[in-house]
Write a structure and sequence with these properties.
- The structure is a single chain.
- The protein is an all-alpha fold and 422 residues long.
- Among the domains are: 38 residues; 121 residues; 80 residues, Tetratricopeptide repeat domain (Serine Threonine Protein Phosphatase 5, Tetratricopeptide repeat); 50 residues.
- The chain has 19 helices and no strands.
- Helix 3 packs antiparallel against helix 4, helix 11 packs antiparallel against helix 12 and helix 12 packs antiparallel against helix 13.
- The radius of gyration is 40 Å and the shape is elongated.
- It starts with 5 loop residues before the first helix and ends with a helix.
Length: 422
């Protein structure tokens, strides 16, 4: 808005009044003339410029004709082969640029490649979109991932407008979505694949789709839906007496229920898995699984079954010289007895644990076990064996040159001496 000096405004008003007098206007007309004269001049507004159209690098209409792409469609076999080779070279050029740190230039080349792949048909384009989308995801190029996902969705809609999607297109779409980590879209497609296979009574194709669905749910940490899938696959494997697949699905379900904190289901599955390992002579896997079972039974407040599984785990591990598993099983068992106020049983277990730690030359473990034994004796006011255990632990701390532990045990020995002779 321009500014006017006070003098300019007054002069304008006076001229307006003189002009009105010369025309013989009455007082109202003269007032109107004066008001009009004082209005500022009308400004000419410049219309806003239209926003520039965003260029879609996947849309060939934004670009001049590509000399690589023949004008005639459909392409002959020779033209397809020649175009494929040229586009493969473009993809390699993009990879070379990316290795040199020129990612923007690389994606410019890859988008040109993708525009060309469209001429080779839907399946070829989908595969290439998944390939470039995987690179975009790995390089955290979110805008590129979204753009490529949008193109996949367009292809899906175009194909659906022509009728039900055939298995080849569905599989290609699902793979492409997976490669760019579009898990929800991939799940939707694989659900379609499983449904189609079920309709056609193609059990092999249905189970393949279900297997991928299970992995996708796990990738999303969607344990409830993953459990539904693998329970279904487990039932099928058991019905066919397929021991190999049964073992795989039991392992999957054991991990799922462990992560989902469902000890009731975890116990049910792990008990079956133990039997499967025994039948398959995979005894080296049983001890760890028995320990896990003991933990689950503890969560369910079933201490007797927890104790049985820890004892069984120790026995199996000891027989196979799996000293790490044997040690862990005994520690779990000793803690269980202490939890239920059974210190004498706990002491017996710690005596066994000393043997395991000695056999495996685990001197740090020996030191910690003597500490636990000393604490139990001390709590029971059996000071003499408590002092012996602390002295054993002190000797190990000195041999290991653990100054902090050495100081700790010296303090404990002094405290026990005071308690023994107050």
């Amino acid at each position: 808005m321009p500014s006017f000096s006070r003098f300019s405004v007054l002069l304008t008003c006076a001229c307006g009044l003189l002009w009105a007098d010369s025309l013989g206007w009455n007082s109202q007309a003269r007032a109107n003339a004066m008001m009009v004269a004082t209005l500022p001049p009308v400004q000419t507004l410049t219309p806003p410029k239209p926003a520039p159209t965003e260029i879609d690098p996947l849309d060939a209409s934004f670009f001049p004709p590509d000399p690589l792409i023949p004008a005639n469609i459909p392409l002959s076999a020779f033209q397809r082969r020649r175009l494929t080779q040229a586009l493969d070279q473009l993809h390699q050029q993009g990879q070379d640029l990316s290795r040199e740190g020129q990612d923007d230039a690389a994606f410019t080349v890859w988008y040109r490649e993708l525009r060309g792949r469209r001429s080779l048909g839907t399946l070829v384009e989908i595969e290439s979109l998944g390939q470039v989308g995987s690179i975009a995801w790995e390089k955290s190029r979110k805008e590129d991932v979204l753009r490529l996902q949008k193109r996949l969705e367009q292809i899906k809609q175009e194909e659906e407008s022509r009728g039900p999607l055939n298995p080849e297109v569905l599989t290609a779409l699902a793979t492409a979505y997976q490669r760019m980590r579009s898990l929800d879209e991939a799940i939707a497609v694989y659900q379609g694949l499983a449904a189609n296979a079920r309709q056609q009574k193609n059990l092999k194709a249905e189970e393949q789709a279900l297997g991928v669905l299970g992995e996708l749910y796990l990738a999303k940490f969607d344990y409830p839906n993953a459990a539904i899938i693998y329970e279904d696959l487990l039932a099928r494997a058991q019905a066919r007496k397929n021991a190999y697949l049964e073992g795989i699905y039991l392992q999957k379900l054991a991990k799922i229920y462990q992560q989902a904190a469902e000890p009731e289901n975890a116990v049910r599955i792990k008990e079956q898995l133990v039997q499967r390992y025994i039948k398959d002579q995979k005894l080296d896997l049983v001890a760890d699984l028995k320990i896990a079972l003991g933990e689950d039974y503890e969560k369910l407040k079933q201490s007797e079954k927890a104790s049985q599984n820890y004892q069984s785990a120790y026995s199996i591990a000891w027989s196979l010289q799996q000293f790490g598993a044997a040690s862990l099983a005994l520690k779990k068992l000793a803690n269980l007895y202490q939890t239920y106020q059974q210190p004498n049983y706990a002491l017996q277990i710690y005596q066994k644990l000393l043997r395991v730690e000695q056999q495996s030359y685990n001197y740090y473990g020996l030191m910690k076990t003597y500490d636990q034994i000393a604490q139990l004796y001390r709590t029971a006011k059996q000071y003499a064996p408590a002092l012996v255990a602390y002295q054993q632990a002190l000797a190990l701390a000195r041999s290991l040159q653990y100054t902090e532990q050495e100081t700790y045990f010296l303090n404990q020995i002094q405290a026990v001496a005071v308690e023994k002779n107050p």
